[in-house]
Amino acid sequence: MALSSSVSTVRSLRFSGAWLAAALALLGFLALPFGRPGRDFFTIDASLRPWALNSVWLWLVFLTIISALLISFLPLKITFRGNLLALTGSIGLLCGIGWLIATSTPFGLGALVSLMGLVVVTGFGLSESGRIQSDAFVSSSVLFVGLFILLFILYPVFTVLKTAVWVDGHLTLVKIVNTLKSPLFMFIENPYTERSEALIISGFAVAATLLALAWAIWKKQTFWRIALSMGVAALLGFLLGLMLYGKGALPTSLFLAVIVSFFSTVFGLSFAILGQRTRLGLVRQSLNAVSLLPIITPPFILAFAMIFLFGRRGLITYSVLGLSTNALFGIIGVALAQILAFTPVAYLVIRGSVSALDPALEEASQTLGANRWYLFRTITWPLLRPGLANAFLLTMIESFADFGNPLILGGDRSYLATEVFSAFSARFDPNEAAVYGLVLLTIVLIVFTLQRFWLGQSSFVTVTGKPSSGNLSPLPGWLEAILVGIFALWTLLVLTLYFSIIYGSFVQLWGINNTLTLKHYQDFMNAGWPVFWYTARTAALSAIPAAFLGFLIAYLVVRQQFWGRMFIEFGSMLSFAIPGTVMGVAYILAFNTGPWLLTSSMAIILIAFVFRNMPVAIRGGVAGLAQIDPSLEEASTTLRASSSVTLRRILVPLLIIPLIGGLIFAFVRAMTAISQVIFLVSPGNMLATVLLLGWVEQGQLGRAAAMATVLIVSMLLVVLSLTLFTRRRGLTNVGVSS
User: Fold this and answer.
1) What pLDDT, on a 0 to 100 scale, did the predictor assign at position 143?
2) DSSP letter, residue 33
3) Whether residues 374 and 275 fall in one domain
4) What is the spatial distance between Cα 714 and Cα 720, in angstroms, rounded to a whole number?
5) Would residue 302 count as lying in a domain?
6) How many domains is the chain built from?
7) Is residue 168 part of a domain?
8) For the CA atoms of 566, 571, 577, 583, what is the dihedral angle to 10 degrees?
9) How far apart are the C-alpha atoms of 418 and 256, rounded to whole Å?
10) 38 & 111 share domain
11) Domain identity same for 340 and 402
12) Whole-angstrom distance between the N-terminal and C-terminal Cα of the chain?
């Protein structure tokens, strides 16, 4: 009893480590301006120093900082002191943020330093009070991550929703109604045709309803199930008719997304099964190389290359077939380009599900006399459903969000992604752009909900910790021949497209003057190299926080228990699920004015890259932490090491490979991004992909081919360097694609 009392007394007299954070906050408050007059982040304006502003809210911030500093040195009981620190820090934080929002003053260096210090003070308080059952590092990290998610993910999405319904200072649905009624968005009746498109689309809905009714009666379903089936069938029939006969951005994008996601998923499944069960080692090795394609190139590069082969002066259409046709420019060309670009993405997703199939299940089924079709329908198909659903969802989101391919090959069609950009940049109507963004976001959420409904609550566990036995049955000879033939044609087409880019960079003018020249590379060095180098620096600067922030979030979600953990997990992955076009509009609307003014600067591009690529590092960190016994961390804690020390000295060395993988992936994805950053670039902050896309639009194909070649080769070298590094470390299964 006496020992317990003495320990309590010692703890109550121990100073809190929050004094350092409070001192830093005080230094930033006194020495730096709390706001800034314009976009230049490092502007020092004496009129915006806290004492010059003479605001009650800022004096409250000052008092809370002084109070936190004093409380840190008072010999109080830890729990009581923690509550005081948490209360003081949160009040100061709210006062500072409230003043910025109320005055619409862009935050300055003083606000950044002092408010960050108050966040750490609040973290110390939550830890010492026991409200978060961990040390101050974890508590502060939870607060920082939560604030980042609120500010850089949820707040921009909310801004899109607000801008769609808040027009000229009034809450109204007029802009939504006018946009949805616009022929650019959708129109059904074409006055230049003799047929009635509305009647045909209605016929599709009626036919689907009758089929659903007949099926439900045959299955002897209940009345409510019959009604539900008929309603769903009517909606699906209407959408099918709309996609086939409707015009405008919505029908075109829906039709394109369905085609692309279906064929990409089918090809991805075919290649994944072929890679696992083929008897040809060369095919298996080639499939591994396929997984690099979506990583090292922007999606629109293949569309650009298709112009060389199938355009008006294309090698195949003009030189071989003698045709000068525009057939490539339209939904067919965009669909082909997206299928070629997104099939490797579907393959990467489905490959994990296919590799997890247990051969013992197949052997048991065959022993019981099941044929191949019954085996596929009852065992293989249910286990593949999660991978197929994820691949379908991901490729559909990529298709909706894709900006470059429709811009290059879209022809006279309207697409949701391009209409978002046109509404914002050509028609100068941010409210209309927000409505298009809201439509895209709604579609993605509906598709995500349907995916969850399709998967339901079924269990798909195949890895149980028990050793698996048996060999996978090889593919039937005829099926393997078909799949190998499809893959060979696909590979030949993709390699030809890439070769056409390289060759196009060395000729005077493709299809007209094929004289070899280095002129395009000279033009690239003069006009493109500074932009390329700026892009590389920006991508490198964004990759480091993206990788480490993602790793930190994975550590918090997997290893810590705290209130709001599900919010952090869901919010951090939301930026990856939302189409990049929507996030681009969201960032330009959210950070173009007011306290969070960041546009026309490198900072907003860095932030966009960080939170767009962070989920990949999260997934890699979660997978790595699942393989490490928590007892290692428990032993470190027993030896009185803090969470930051445990993270730095134990977990980071053990997970260095996934961490570097996330770092390289974030860098490469930042180098090849286009759909989000197209909205964020400015004359002094141009990126390589945006400049490349502009050259393609302007018809400067040779110069664009030179930049594309440099981009592809440099990204390939980066990925290969990572592969060599991991092999030297003895780990070949690295997640470049994780």
Assistant:
1) 93
2) -
3) yes
4) 10
5) no
6) 4
7) no
8) 170
9) 14
10) yes
11) yes
12) 54
pTM greater than 0.70: yes
Q: Which helix (H) or strand (E) holds 709?
A: helix 701-728
> Contact at 8 Å (CB) between 242 and 197?
no
pLDDT in tens, 479-500: 788 888 888 888 888 888 888 8
Q: Are residues 202 and 177 in the same domain?
A: no
Sign of the torsion angle spanned by Cα atoms 655, 657, 658, 659: positive
What are the tokens at 596? Answer: 């969070």
Cα–Cα distance for residue pair 391/388, rounded to 1 Å:
5
Contact 472, 262 (CB under 8 A): no
User: CA 340 from chain center: how many Å?
Assistant: 20
pLDDT band (50, 70, 90) for residue 1 = very low
Provide the mean pLDDT of the chain: 82
Q: What are phi and psi of 325, to 5 degrees?
A: -125, 155
* The predicted structure's pLDDT at residue 461: 42
In angstroms, rounded to a whole number, what is the distance separating the alpha carbons of residues 8 and 79?
11
Q: How far apart are CA 42 and CA 22, in angstroms?
A: 23
- Please, which residues have CB within 8 angstroms of residue 60's CB and are 6 or more apart in sequence? 91, 92, 95
Q: How far is CA 291 from CA 283, 351, 398, 675, in A?
A: 13, 10, 16, 21
Q: Which amino acid is at 649?
A: R
Instruction: Give the integer Cα–Cα distance in Å for 163 and 156.
Output: 10
Name which of 613, 544, 620 is nearest 572 in CA terms.
613
Contact 278, 284 (CB under 8 A): yes
Is 137 within the bounds of a domain? no
CATH, residue 703:
1.10.3720.10
Query: Would you call 222 exposed, middle or buried from its count of C-beta atoms within 10 A (0-12, 13-18, 19+)?
Result: exposed
Q: What is the pLDDT of residues 42-84, one digit of tens each?
A: 778 888 888 888 889 999 999 999 999 999 888 888 899 999 9
Q: Which tokens belong to 250?
A: 């919505």
Residue 149 domain-assigned?
Answer: no
User: Does residue 608 sit in the same domain as residue 725?
Assistant: yes
C-alpha to C-alpha distance for 363 and 368, rounded to whole angstroms? 9
What tens digit of pLDDT does each residue of 598-651 get? 888 888 999 999 998 888 788 777 777 776 777 777 787 777 777 888 888 888
**Is there a contact between 213 and 152 (Cβ–Cβ < 8 Å)?**
no
Q: Is there a single domain that holds both residue 449 and residue 545?
A: no
> How many of the other CB atoms lie within 10 Å of CB of 73?
12
Q: Do 662 and 556 sit in the same domain of this protein?
A: yes
Residue type, 140: S
* Residue 452 lies in domain: 173-187+248-295+326-490
CA quadruple 303, 304, 305, 307: dihedral sign: positive
Are 291 and 491 spatial neighbours (Cβ–Cβ below 8 Å)? no
DSSP single-letter state for residue 468: P
Give whole-number Cα distances, 228 to 159, 207, 323, 446, in Å. Answer: 35, 16, 51, 17
- In terms of DSSP bridges, do strands 170-171 and 507-509 run parallel, antiparallel, or are they unpaired? unpaired
> Which two structure tokens, joined as six digits, stand for 354?
């296919």
> What pLDDT band is residue 358 in, cutting at 50, 70 and 90?
low
Minimal CA–CA distance to 309: which of 290, 328, 284? 328
Q: Are residues 267 and 415 in the same domain?
A: yes
DSSP string of 547-589, one letter each residue: HHHHHHHHHHHHH---TTHHHHHHHHHHHHHS-HHHHHHHHHH
- Collapsed DSSP state (helix, strand, coil) of residue 171: strand
CA distance 352 to 590: 37
Closest to 614 measured CA to CA, from 624, 604, 606, 626: 606
DSSP result, 412-446: T---HHHHHHIIIIIS--HHHHHHHHHHHHHHHHH
Are residues 342 and 534 in contact, defined by beta-carbon separation less than 8 angstroms? no
Sign of the CA dihedral running 509, 510, 512, 517: positive
Number of separate helices (H) and strands (E) present in the chain: 34, 4
Q: For residue 506, give the DSSP letter.
A: T
